[in-house]
Write a structure and sequence with these properties.
The complex is a heterodimer of chains A (54) and B (288).
Chain A (H helix, E strand, L loop, with lengths): L1 H7 L4 H28 L14
Chain B lengths: L1 H5 L19 H60 L35 E6 L9 E5 L3 H5 L4 E3 L10 E6 L20 E5 L3 E13 L25 E9 L6 E14 L6 H5 L4 E2 L2 E2 L1
Parallel strand pairs in B: 2-3, 4-7
Antiparallel strand pairs in B: 1-2, 1-5, 3-4, 5-6, 6-8, 7-8, 9-10
Classes of the chains: A mainly alpha (54), B alpha+beta (288).
């Protein structure tokens, strides 16, 4: 999978390295911004209140 | 030449380059080619699955980093912005010679604000035990995405507002998201917990700390300990309740701190002595 992505990246080696870093950074940023906050809602260890809301 | 003649091959017109290779026939060639291709597909699938599993492991590890570190970075920054953005008039600045203006103790019934709309910031919390730079915003509601994970401290809806008879009950994270109640277990009986609204200081004193089950809603009752169905007595005492998770990084139990109102004072009079004792002072720009 990563080999195929690497082969799909255009340009010389330095450009491929830059593009790979940008792609990886974009995935991490998307996780931090959207995926993890959504996931955290389903995690049980963040509850601080008493009552029905848990 | 005798060798070429004994093993005829298609396209035998070529000559002078040694013996011609033997054509093994179409079926044989197909069988030889299919076998390594099937193995290649299996290897490729295993390889992709392996890469996906490694990726999942890395992303789960990053989730831990996000939860334990990044939510604090974002929470602290956002909560400081809220405090800075409140633009409330600071208490009178210290006079050049007379020292800081100390708010006088008011023990009559304090002014009480109306309950604001959900997720509206209406108060600031100062806790001298937690350091001179500790100040966090208090907002209406205990919804996680809109209040606890972002603004910081949440006020249980339909519990008393600061200063009112009944129970001013709040919740906040003990870990992650700026962790406003991180040091809740350090509070001792007698410790001041100071709530400021735009106009009024409310100085509460801690009376009790305890650990309860998440289902024990009586801790936020108008009189702590009052259970559902009990007759509501005439309310006279002005309670403060702080709830957070316990143990840390878990939600198995809740850590509870109760307090009662000691006195109140208008912000325009000065700063409560308890804050000055802890080194919490104000200049014209607000919190130092």
């Amino acid at each position: 999978m990563y080999g195929a992505i690497w082969r799909l990246l255009p340009g010389p080696l330095w450009l491929r390295v830059v593009l790979a870093v940008v792609l990886g950074g974009a995935v991490v940023a998307a996780c931090f911004e959207w995926v993890y906050p959504w996931l955290a809602e389903y995690m049980p260890f963040n509850d601080t209140t008493v009552g029905a809301g848990g | 030449m005798t060798l070429r003649q004994s093993s005829p091959a298609p396209g035998g017109a070529s000559s002078g380059r040694g013996p011609e290779p033997v054509w093994p026939g179409p079926q044989h060639a197909g069988a030889r080619r299919r076998s390594p291709t099937a193995g290649g597909v299996v290897a490729a699938v295993v390889g992709v699955v392996g890469e996906l599993l490694v990726t999942a492991g890395v992303l789960l590890g990053l989730f831990v980093v996000w939860q334990l570190w990044w939510t604090d970075v974002e929470g602290d920054r956002h909560q400081q912005e809220i405090i800075a953005g409140l633009d409330w008039t600071p208490p009178p600045a210290p006079a050049e010679s007379a020292g800081p203006s100390v708010a006088t103790r008011h023990e009559e019934a304090p002014p009480v604000d109306a309950q604001p709309a959900e997720a509206t910031v209406f108060a600031q919390l100062y806790v001298p035990r937690w350091g001179a730079d500790y100040v966090k915003p208090v907002a209406e509601g205990t919804d996680k995405p809109t209040v606890l994970d972002t603004i910081g401290i949440g006020h249980y809806p339909d519990t008393a507002m600061p200063g009112d008879v009944g129970n001013f009950a709040t919740a906040a994270h003990r870990t992650t998201y700026g962790k406003p109640y991180n040091r809740i277990a350090e509070l001792q009986p007698g410790d001041p917990v100071v709530v400021r609204t735009e106009t009024t200081w409310y100085v509460y004193r801690v009376t009790e700390s305890k650990i309860v089950a998440p289902t024990q809603v009586e801790v936020v009752a108008p009189v702590p300990g009052l259970r559902a169905g009990d007759p509501l007595p005439e309310l006279t005492e002005r309670y403060l309740t702080m709830t957070s998770c316990h143990p840390m990084y878990s939600a198995r139990e809740r850590y509870i701190v109760h307090g009662t109102l000691d006195y109140w004072a208008p912000v325009s009079e000065g700063t409560p002595q308890e804050l000055l004792d802890a080194g919490i002072t104000f200049d014209a720009a607000g919190v130092e």
